[in-house]
Write a structure and sequence with these properties.
The complex is a heterodimer of chains A (458) and B (245). In chain A, 32% of the residues lie in helices and 21% in strands. With 458 residues, chain A is an alpha/beta fold. The chains are: A alpha/beta (458), B alpha/beta (245).
Chain lengths: 458, 245
């Protein structure tokens, strides 16, 4: 009965794929949603690739997935993936439906699946990755994810016991998930820019989980990312199986050292979060038996997806779209930190409003007070334009961060924000927006580029 | 003026420590001298030997609730005495549950936590059903805005020995069956409402500062604070504004 129900669900979902194509509604979760509605344990029955690489965690999972998919593709493989859809159970079901024939048999040997960490309980009973990467765990949407201990508990409970974990040794939260599972650790060795005490607002693990004493850091990169030990007991960060050494941002190079040797890599981004993403991907490829030279070659053919970060010269300035997910204090803090350290003078447009929430409710803005707006109190940031439904909250938050009121300009309407820019020659203009305001963000970005070109011609 | 912040190493979720940062800026703006003590789990609380002008504790993880109860239990009688003595407490988010009889977890394999039993309330959490809503309430003439984001609610389990903190206008009270929100006894104020509540509610913050002994409270960035507050207040009063996510 279960199998018959599954086939009915699969055929209905397949038919919906055709209907969606005709009506130009590609990329939705509808086929997976429909299949799960008809057959609640649809994920149990549908055939899966022989090798599944899962990627979960708070930040970087989409970038890591994109890099993996691009590199496998460059290597001549055709990985099944959920890049076009969502990372919850219905999105994964949709990908598997796309990748299966009419009888539910999978056409791919390899799958790369981004898995929402909160959805572990709905995915892992049926989809059992051979390898699961956990990029990191930080606090995320309070409305959904509550706190990191809650998410770590869910992952520990539901990750299949046979799955090999690829973990970030520099993250004391995710590196302790599912302690019984086989695992390897990656990380980045001490860097010149490291510190010893956390200066960020978010620090999700301040005490030892064993004895509750203070944690002391040998080096700390940001938030709780670094190498730590407890001052009172034996608890400490795990050692590295894959260690990035001699990371040189000026030369854009790094080395990866593991038990079998050393590889030399060119950095594809100068942002530390993206260097972590690179190290993560290299660790996974090494686990699969790829040689350093091959990985380096495959990685050199990739780039960070332009919807996340892209700099365009326009007129006499550069216009940069900077992904900063709304409701995710950590993501915006990382973006603010990165931008504040860039050498040029800057103007910023902040429009990370949860437009979906605003349509029906009003955004829960607590995350603004977990987010390090203090990075924007920087002399090279000349003007900050706050816009969208919550612009008054942004003004207050920036003032609390110590930003001079004279630098803050506001407009309720996002599309008017570019008109308020100065376009001073030589400066960088950053437009911050998240997935919730993607379409509007792209419009604002396009208008900014057009205006920059116009001003540049004068 | 002395302020004690309890266990900031674990009671720091949802941006709630901004309550203290904003209060600190506002005390500076008002020309007050103050001292803030951040008490960690390994420290002897300041309130054990002194009467601070404000004791603050914010939201935490469910594991941390257990640690906090263990830490505070030896001071239970002292806390009761301080409440009777009109000491100012501001307790936000699920820190409220610490002062009740029990914290229960209905749908997860978390162990129930015995609370300080200062108030006859039981918190019932559903770990796979997070509750979110906007909140609009009143405290005397003051209108209060904020958010609720929690796994459960608190229910009265005996003779009520406290007043309600806020009269609810829109949103959920202490639990879906009880209209009003929070717990108030003398200067002890506890609420599930987050925001951070002091940043979002300038009138409430000024009233608290007055209770703490500030003659003429002035808020940091007062104009911007009121503009943000009034915008939110007007939105929340709109007839068709959704309150439940």
């Amino acid at each position: 009965m279960g199998k018959l129900k599954f086939l009915v669900a699969h055929w209905a979902a397949k038919a919906s794929v055709v209907a969606l194509k005709i009506t130009k509604h590609n990329g939705t979760n509808f086929p997976g949603e429909l299949a799960i509605k008809i057959c609640p344990d649809f994920l149990k029955y549908i055939d899966k690739p022989e090798t599944i690489i899962g990627v979960t965690g708070t930040n970087g999972k989409t970038t890591v997935c994109n890099l993996l998919i691009d590199m496998f593709t460059a290597d001549g493989q055709v990985p099944l993936n959920n890049r076009a859809g969502s990372n919850i159970n219905s999105g994964i079901a949709t990908s598997l439906i796309h990748g299966a024939n009419l009888f539910g048999k999978c056409k791919h040997n390899l799958g790369v699946l981004e898995i929402d960490e909160r959805s572990a309980l709905r995915v892992f009973p049926y989809v059992k990755p051979n390898y699961l990467i956990i990029t990191n765990l930080f606090r995320d949407s309070m409305k959904r994810n509550a706190n990191t201990e809650y998410i770590a508990d869910i992952l520990s409970k539901y990750i299949p016991k046979e799955t090999k974990l690829v973990l970030n040794a520099d993250d004391l939260i995710s590196s302790n998930v599912a302690p019984e599972n086989p695992r390897v650790y990656f990380g980045i060795d001490k860097m010149d820019s490291d510190i010893k005490e956390c200066t960020n607002l978010i620090n999700d693990i301040r005490i030892c989980p064993v004895c509750h004493s203070k944690l002391e850091y040998e080096y700390l990169r940001y938030h709780h990312i670094g190498k730590a030990h407890c001052v009172s007991c034996d608890f400490k960060s795990p050692g590295y199986d894959y260690c990035a050494k001699n990371v040189n941002i000026d030369d854009m190079t790094m080395e990866i050292v593991d038990k079998d040797g050393l590889g030399n890599y060119r950095l594809i981004s100068n942002g530390i979060h993206n260097i972590y993403n690179m190290v993560t991907v290299i660790a996974l490829f090494r686990e699969l038996g790829y040689k350093h030279g091959i990985i380096e070659k495959l990685m050199s053919q990739t780039s960070i997806v332009k919807s996340r970060y892209n700099a365009v010269p326009a007129g006499k300035v550069r216009v940069i779209n900077q992904m900063a997910k709304e409701n995710n204090a950590l993501g915006s803090s990382r973006a603010f930190d990165f931008v504040s350290k860039e050498p040029n003078d800057k103007e910023l447009i902040l429009m990370m409003n949860c437009l979906g929430d605003e349509k029906h409710w009003s955004e829960n803005t607590c995350w603004l007070y977990d987010c390090d707006f203090e990075f924007l109190n920087d002399e090279k940031i000349k003007k900050i334009i706050v816009t969208g439904p919550r612009y008054k909250d942004y003004i207050l938050r920036l003032l609390i961060a110590g930003v001079d009121r004279a630098k803050i300009v506001d407009t309720a309407h996002e599309i008017d924000a570019p008109d308020l820019l100065d376009f001073t020659p030589g400066e960088d203009i950053y437009v911050f927006f998240g997935t919730d305001s993607l379409a509007l963000g792209n419009k604002v970005l396009a208008k900014t580029i057009d205006l920059a070109k116009e001003r540049g011609d004068k | 003026m002395k302020i004690e912040v309890l266990f900031p190493e674990i009671c720091n979720l949802f941006g709630e420590l901004a309550n203290i940062r904003y209060l600190e800026s506002s005390l500076k703006e008002s020309g007050e001298f103050y001292e803030i003590t951040y008490t960690s789990l390994k420290d002897e609380p300041l309130f054990a030997s002194e009467k601070p002008d404000l004791i603050y504790m914010g939201g935490m993880s469910e594991h941390s609730q257990s640690l906090v109860v263990d830490k505070l239990m030896p001071y239970r009688d002292r806390i009761i005495d301080l409440i009777k003595d009109d000491t100012n407490f501001l307790i936000t988010s699920n820190a409220l549950e610490i002062f009740g009889e029990r914290i229960e977890f209905c749908d997860a394999d978390y162990e129930d936590i015995k609370g300080l039993s200062i108030f006859p309330t039981v918190a019932k959490n559903q770990m796979y059903k997070r509750f979110n809503c906007l909140y609009l309430g009143k405290l005397g003439d003051m209108e209060i805005v904020g958010f609720k984001s929690q796994f459960g609610h608190s229910y009265l389990n005996g003779d009520k020995n406290y007043e309600d903190l806020f009269e609810t206008i829109k949103g959920t009270g202490l639990n879906p069956e009880y209209k009003n929100e929070g717990i108030k006894v003398n200067g002890f104020l506890a609420t599930y409402v987050v925001g951070p509540i002091l940043v979002l509610n300038p009138d409430f913050t000024k009233a608290l500062m007055k209770r703490m002994g500030v003659g003429e409270p002035k808020l940091a960035y007062e104009e911007a604070a009121y503009e943000s507050y009034n915008q939110r207040l007007n939105e929340y009063k709109e007839e068709n504004r959704g309150f439940y996510y």
